[in-house]
From TrEMBL:
Transmembrane regions: 21-43, 55-74, 86-103, 109-129, 150-171, 177-195, 299-319, 325-347, 368-385, 391-409
Membrane topology: Multi-pass membrane protein
Keywords of this entry: Cell membrane, Membrane, Transmembrane, Transmembrane helix, Transport
UniProt name for this protein: MFS transporter
Alphabetized InterPro entries for the sequence: MFS, MFS_dom, MFS_trans_sf, MFS_Transporters, Sugar_transporter_CS
Length: 414
C-alpha cells in the first residue's frame, strides 16, 4: 500500500476502524429515508384525504429535487470546508424531520419535512460515499461502495418494515416516526465526536495519479458538463443512475397505494416495501467486490435488465398481489444491487481525484433527480391510465437505459 511520511495509507484494511464507523453512520442516514417508504403515502390518502396521485407523490418530488441539487454542491462544499463539516450539517438539517413527520398538521408541513430531508440526505449520504472512497483507494473501491450502500439501503428496508409494523398496530402517526429521533441523535453525535475527516486521503491519491489536462482543479460548470454529457462513460453512468432512481421514486409512491387497492394490508405492504431495499442493500456486499473483479459494465447492463423483469412480474400480476409484489421487489432489489455500487465505482474510475468529489456530486444530482421524475411520471400516468401503467412505463424506460450503457460505456479500470 502507498504510504506517506504522516503514515496516511490507502486501503480498507489500513483504515478499517474509520470505515466501519462510516458504515454505521450511513445506516442511520438510510434509516431516515426508510421512515417514509411505507407510511407517508398512506398518510396523504388516509389522513389528509388527498385524491390526486401527483399531489400525494409531491413529497417524493420535493425530496428528490432538493436532494439532487444538494448533491450537486456537496462535493464543492466538501472540498472547501472538509467532508466532516458537511456531514455534520447534513445531520443538523435532519433533526426536525421525524418530529414534522409525526406531528405535521397539514400536508404542506410534510412537504417542508421532505425539503429538509433532501438537504440532509444530500449532505450526509454524499459525504459517507466520498469519505469511504477516500479511504479505500482504487483497488477496493467497488467493495467499499457495496458496503456503504448495503448499510444505507439495508437500513432503508428494515426501517420500512418496522414502520409498517408499528403503523398496523398503533396507527399511521406518530409512533412509526419515533425511531427517526434516535437515528438523528446517534448519527449527529458520532459525526461530531468520532468521525475523522478524510480529505487528506484524496490528496494522497491525487499525488499518485499521472498528471494530464484534466488533473487540475476545474470549476463546477466544467465538471457538470464533463459528467453530464461530454464524457461518454460519465454520460452513460449518469443516465443509468437517473433511471435507476426513477424506478425507486415510482415504487416509493406507487406500491403502497397500488397494493392497498388490491387488498394487501399494512404489514404486507411493509414487507413489499422492505424487501426491495433490503435485497438491494445486502446484495451489494456481493456485487460491490464483484464489480472490482469482473468490471463495472456487465453489472450495470444486466442489473438494469433484471429490474425490467421485476417490473414485468409486478405490472402484469402473474401471482396473487402479495406474492407478485414480493417476487417483483426481490428482482428489483437484485437488479439495483448489481447496478448501484458499480455506478459509483465507475464514476470514481473515470474522474480524476482532484475533481472526483464534484463529479460524484453531479452524478448523484442526476441519479437523485430520478426520484422526482419517477414520482412525477407515476402521478401523471397513474391519474390517466392507472398505477399499473406507471410500472409498465418505468420498465420500458429501464430497458432503453440498459441498452444505452451496453452501446456507449467502456470499462475504465485496469
Amino acid at each position: 500500500m502507498i504510504e506517506t511520511k504522516e503514515k496516511i495509507r490507502l486501503g480498507l484494511k489500513e483504515n478499517w476502524q474509520q470505515f466501519t464507523l462510516l458504515v454505521l453512520v450511513n445506516m442511520m442516514v438510510g434509516g431516515m429515508v426508510g421512515l417514509e417508504r411505507t407510511v407517508v403515502p398512506l398518510v396523504g390518502t388516509e389522513e389528509f384525504h388527498i385524491q390526486s396521485d401527483v399531489v400525494v407523490f409531491s413529497f417524493i418530488i420535493a425530496f428528490g429535487v432538493v436532494k439532487a441539487f444538494t448533491n450537486l454542491i456537496s462535493g464543492v462544499l466538501a472540498d472547501k470546508y472538509t467532508r466532516k463539516k458537511v456531514l455534520i450539517w447534513g445531520w443538523l438539517f435532519g433533526l426536525p424531520v421525524p418530529f414534522l413527520l409525526a406531528f405535521a398538521p397539514s400536508w404542506n408541513w410534510i412537504l417542508f419535512a421532505n425539503v429538509l430531508l433532501g438537504i440532509s440526505q444530500g449532505f450526509a449520504w454524499s459525504m459517507t460515499v466520498n469519505m469511504k472512497i477516500d479511504l479505500a483507494g482504487k483497488k477496493n473501491r467497488g467493495l467499499a461502495m457495496g458496503l456503504n450502500e448495503a448499510a444505507g439501503y439495508g437500513a432503508v428496508g428494515l426501517t420500512a418494515l418496522l414502520t409498517g409494523y408499528l403503523a398496523s398496530h398503533y396507527g399511521l402517526r406518530p409512533q412509526p416516526f419515533y425511531i427517526g429521533i434516535a437515528y438523528t441523535l446517534v448519527g449527529l453525535l458520532l459525526s461530531i465526536f468520532v468521525v475523522q475527516d478524510t480529505r487528506k486521503f484524496a490528496q494522497l491519491e491525487a499525488r499518485q495519479v499521472s498528471t494530464d489536462e484534466s488533473a487540475h482543479k476545474p470549476n463546477l460548470w466544467w465538471v457538470f458538463k464533463e459528467t453530464s454529457f461530454k464524457n461518454k462513460n460519465l454520460f452513460s453512468i449518469s443516465q443509468a443512475g437517473l433511471i435507476n432512481n426513477l424506478n425507486d421514486g415510482m415504487s416509493w409512491g406507487v406500491f403502497p397505494l397500488l397494493f392497498m387497492s388490491m387488498g394487501v394490508g399494512l404489514e404486507g405492504i411493509g414487507w413489499i416495501k422492505a424487501v426491495y431495499p433490503v435485497v438491494w442493500g445486502v446484495g451489494q456486499i456481493v456485487t460491490g467486490p464483484l464489480a472490482d473483479k469482473i468490471g463495472r459494465k456487465p453489472l450495470i447492463v444486466w442489473g438494469m435488465f433484471v429490474q425490467v423483469l421485476g417490473h414485468v412480474v409486478i405490472g402484469f400480476e402473474w401471482f396473487q398481489p402479495l406474492t407478485s409484489g414480493l417476487i417483483g421487489s426481490v428482482l428489483l432489489g437484485i437488479g439495483t444491487a448489481m447496478v448501484y455500487p458499480a455506478l459509483l465505482a465507475a464514476v470514481s474510475d473515470t474522474a480524476h481525484p482532484n475533481w472526483r468529489a464534484s463529479s460524484l456530486g453531479v452524478y448523484r444530482f442526476w441519479r437523485d433527480m430520478g426520484y422526482a421524475l419517477g414520482a412525477l411520471m407515476a402521478g401523471i400516468v397513474g391519474s390517466f391510465f392507472g398505477l399499473e401503467w406507471a410500472v409498465h412505463i418505468a420498465g420500458i424506460i429501464t430497458f432503453i437505459s440498459g441498452i444505452i450503457v451496453w452501446i456507449r460505456m467502456k470499462e475504465a479500470i485496469a
